[in-house]
Amino acid sequence: MLITGAAGYIGTRLTQRVLTDPAFAEATVTIVDTTIRNQGSGPRLRAVEGDLRDPGVRREALGSRPDIAFHLAGILGGTAEANYALAREVNVDATLSLFEDLRDEMKPPRVVFTSSIAVFGPLDAEGVDDDTRASPHMFYGAQKHMMEIALENFSARGSLDGLALRLPGIVARRGADARMKAAFLSHLFYAVEAGRDYTLPVSADGTSWLLSVPACVDALIHGALLPRGLLAERRALTLPALRVSMQQLADALSKHFQGSVARIDYAPDLELERQFARQPLLVTALADELGFKHDGTVEALVRRAIEPQGPVSGQFAQRDDR
Amino acid sequence: MLITGAAGYIGTRLTQRVLTDPAFAEATVTIVDTTIRNQGSGPRLRAVEGDLRDPGVRREALGSRPDIAFHLAGILGGTAEANYALAREVNVDATLSLFEDLRDEMKPPRVVFTSSIAVFGPLDAEGVDDDTRASPHMFYGAQKHMMEIALENFSARGSLDGLALRLPGIVARRGADARMKAAFLSHLFYAVEAGRDYTLPVSADGTSWLLSVPACVDALIHGALLPRGLLAERRALTLPALRVSMQQLADALSKHFQGSVARIDYAPDLELERQFARQPLLVTALADELGFKHDGTVEALVRRAIEPQGPVSGQFAQRDDR
Questions:
Q1: Whole-prediction pTM
Q2: Domains identified in chain A and CATH numbers
C-alpha cells in the first residue's frame, strides 16, 4: 500500500487507521511526504521523505509495486491560488506522472485519489447531483478535475483501477491555518469546546456540506476495498456529506459541550458566504449505491469530528495548506 | 495573431486564409511549427521554427503579444496512442504552458484551441448533444479534454478568452497517411476522383460526422471573431458536422466526378466501424446559436472538400499525424 501526503491532516489519520485495522494486518505501507515525523515504525511501515515532483522519489515510493495507492498529496485551495506555478507542478505534473508510474496492465492497482467539491465552481442554487457539470473556478478545482479525467482514462484503458473521491469540507482540523479559507468551520468547533466566543464569517442560515475526518477516512478505506466489478465507467464520485446550517452546527456544538459558555455571532463575508455557506441540496446517488456514507446526523458529525485523534494529531495539522 | 501547428493540414489553410482575408488586412501573423516551409513571406508574416515544448520557442512565438491565438499544434490520435510520452509532452505539458504564457489579465487574448470529438470516447447510440459527458478512451481525447478544462478555467478567471472547438472528421486530406486511422475517409475522395476502385473498411450504412476543410477553417475564423460577450461559461463546443452514411458519400462523389468508373466496396473492420462509422445523431445547439455551420448538404461537402487548396496543399498533408 502507498499513501502520499501521509503527514497531512487526513494522511496521518489514514496511516494510523491502516496500521491498526485488522483488514490490513498483512499490508506493508509505504508513506510519502515532504517531511515525515513521528508516524510510528515497525516492519510494516516504510517511510519515504521527499517531493513527488522528483522522479527519484516516485521511483523509491513505488519500489514495491503497491496494490492500493492513496494519492492525497497536493497543494490545497488557498495556497494554489497564491502560488499557481507550485500548484501546477504538484497537482498536475507530479500527479499525472505518479498515475503514469503506477500503471500496470497486468495488475492494475486501485488508486484512490482525493478530489474535491471545488471541481464544481460556483454552485447552482437548485442543487448538485452526479450529472452536475464540473466548471471549476479555483485553480485547485481545475487541476483536480483534469486529474480525474486522466485517472478515468487510464482506468478505461485497464492500466489503473482508479477512483477519485470528491471531498466536501472535512472537520475539525485542530489549529487549522487561518490562511485556509474554510478554517472558520474548524475554529468554531474548538472555540465552543474552549468556551470562547466566536464570530462566524458566514450567516446563521448559511449551509455547508460537511464530513468528519473519521468518516472521510472510512470513505477512503471503503473506496480502496470496493470490488473492481462494482466500478463502472465513471471513476469520479462526489462523496455523501451532511448539509448543515451554521445555526444547526452551533446548536449541536453547544449541546455537546454542555458547560460551554461560548457565544456565537455571525458577521457574513460575502466571498466566504458564497464559497462555503451557500451549498445547496446534494444528491450523491452513485456513491450512495456503492455504500459510501456521511455522518448521518449533526450530533454524530460533531461527536466524531472532535474525537481524540491519537498521538500525531495536531502536529501536522497545518501541513494540508502548505 | 499567432498560429501554432501552422504547417499542418488545417494550419496551412488557416494561414493562407488569414493572409488573404480582408478582415485581417491589418494583422501581423506569427506562425509556429517544427518545420516551416514555403508558406509565403512579407512584412505581415513572421515564422518561428521550433518545438513548443521549448520555453524559448514559446517566448519567441509570443514576442508580440497576440490578440488572437490559434493553437492547432498537437500529436494526433494514432500517433498519441503509439507514443504516449511524446503526446503528454506536447498535448498536455506544452499546451498548458502555452495557455499560461498567453494569460494576460489586462487584455485577455482570444485563444481558439482545436479539440476533438475524441473527448467523447465510445458514442452512445442515442445521440450526442452539448450535455453528453466527455469520457475519452483514446489518450488524445483525454489530453484534449484536460486542456479544455484549463482553457475554461483561465477564461473564468479572466486571464484568457478561450474557445475550444471540438472538430469532427475533417475531409479531404490529400495523401492522408495510412497510419491515420480515419485516413480511409479521405482516401475515398481521391480514389473516386482518380477512377480507382476502393474498398472502405466500414459498412455502407455506417455514419460519420464530417466537415470539409474550408468549413473547418471558416469555423476557426468565426470562433476567433465572436464577440466576447456572446461566450458564456462554457468554453468547449462541439462543432456542427454533417452526418452522412458511407453510401451517401460514395453516391455524391460518383455524381460529382461524373466520368468516374470507381467501384466502391465495403469490408467492415469492427474496430474502425466502432470508432468512425457509428456516429449517432449530433445536436450542437450551443455552437448553432453562436452561428457555427457545417457544409449543409453532402453535395456541398464533397465539392468543398476537394476544392483546389492553393500552392502549399498536399506538401504538409502528412504532418498532422506526426
A1: 0.94
A2: 2-167+212-239+282-291+308-317 (3.40.50.720)
